[in-house]
What does this fold into?
Amino acid sequence: MKKKMLSALLSAAMVATLLVGCGSTPAPAEEAAAPAAEEAAPAEKEETPVAEVAANDSGYTGAISYMHFSTSEEAQGNGGSESHRAAIESWIAANPDIDLQQEVLSNDDYKQQIATRAAAGDLPDVFLLQGMNTIAWVEQGLVLDLSDYITSSPYASKYNMDYLVPFTVDGKYYAYPVLTGGTCTVVCYDEAAFKAAGFDSFPTTWEDVEKANEYFKANGYDYTIAFGNSGQWQMNSCFLSCLGYQYTGTEWFSNILSGNGKSAFTDAEFVAALTETQKLFKDTGIFNTDFNAINNEEAREYFLAGDCPAFIGGNWDEAYITENMDGDLVNNLKFAVLPQAADATKYEKFQNIGLGYGIAINTKVAEDPAKLAACIDLAQELTGPVFADYVGANFALGGFCKADFDLSVFDRVKQEFYNFQYVDTKGCEIYDSYVDGSVWSVLNTEIQEMCNGDKDPATVAADTQAAYEAWCK
It folds into this structure.
C-alpha cells in the first residue's frame, strides 16, 4: 500500500490544525461589551475596503486563465467568496497589462468541470485544487510543485503552514490554501423556539432532538432541522465527517490517510456512524423529507422562512443567514455542534474545520518563466495579506495568511460564531479534503441511496473500502 502522505507531517499538522483554527489574532472576545438582553437589529457595519496590491515585476503581458467558483451569487453572504472576488479585482487593477481570463462556475459545476478537464489534460493556467485530488493529479504530472515559492514567499512568515496538509505529497507543496478556514458543520438554530420546546440551548444528544421534534411537529412545524444533499458532497462534508469522529475518534482517519492498513471503512465504528446517519435521516422525521432533492442554499431558505427551527450547514451559510434574517431570528440565532449519538463513545464537541481548496498552477505554465512568475504572484496575492485583512476585518474569518483584527467591532452573532469556530470547540478533519475523489464518489452516491432506504450501511462501507483499496494500489 502506497504511503500517501508523510506520517510525521500529517500527525503534527493534524494536531496543530485541530487546535489553531484560522491562525488569526483578534482582540479577545471577552473584551467586547456584552450584548443587551433584548438585542435590536445589528447596525450596518462599515465595510473595510480592499487594499491595493503592487504590480508584479514579471514583465509578462499576456493572458492567464483562472478557473474558480466564487460566483457573484455565491459571494452574496459568503465572506470567503466575496473577499476572494475583492482580492482578484485588486490584483487586476494592479496589473492592467495582464489579461486575467476568469472562468467562474457554481461550486457543484466547478467540481465536475475541473475533473473533466484534468482527465483531458486541459487544466487552466491557475485553478482551485481540492485536497482529495492532490495526490492523483500530482502523480499524473498535472500540478506544479510550489514548495520553493511558498517557503520563499514574502508572506511566508504569516502563513499558517498547517493548512498545507491537504496539498502536500512526499513533503512537497502543490497549492496555496485559499478562501477561509471555517467550519463545514454548524447547527444554526432559533434559541427561543428550543426554549419553548423545553431546552435552554440546542440539545446535546439526538435523543433529545427527537423529543424536541415531537414538540415542534405538534406546534406547526413539519420537521426540526433543514438539510440539503442534492450535490451529494453535503452529507460527507457537513454531517458525516463530524458524526464519524464521534464513533472513531481521531486515530481512525489518521490511519486512513497514512495508508498503514490499521483502519478500514468496514470497521465497526465507521459502519455504526453510517447506521446512525441512516436512522436519523430515514426514520426519525427530524429532517425535511426532500433533503436529497435540494441543495445547501435551498435548505437554509427553509430555516430563514421559519419552516423549521434549525439548519445544518457550513461557515459560508452564517454570513448569508445573518444578512438575510429578520424578525425574532435577529435576536435568537445561535450556533451548536452536532448532537452526540447514543452509542458513540468518543464525542468531544467536534466541528470540522480546514481549507479544502488551494490555488494550484498547471505544470505547463512553467514553460514560460515570465508567465509562471505572474501566476505565482496571483496565487500569493489572492491568499496573502490583502485577502486576510479584508476577510478578517469584514467577516471575522481567517485563511492561510494570518491577520490582526478587532473582534469587538462585530455584532453578537459574528463574535459568537468566531468563538464557535476557533475558541469553544475542537476541530476535526473534513473527510473529503483528503484521500481521492474516486473514493468519495462511491461513498457520497451510496449515502444518498442509504438514507433513502435503498442500501444498507454495511454495503456502503464495503463498497467504499473497495474503492479505497483500488486507489491505494
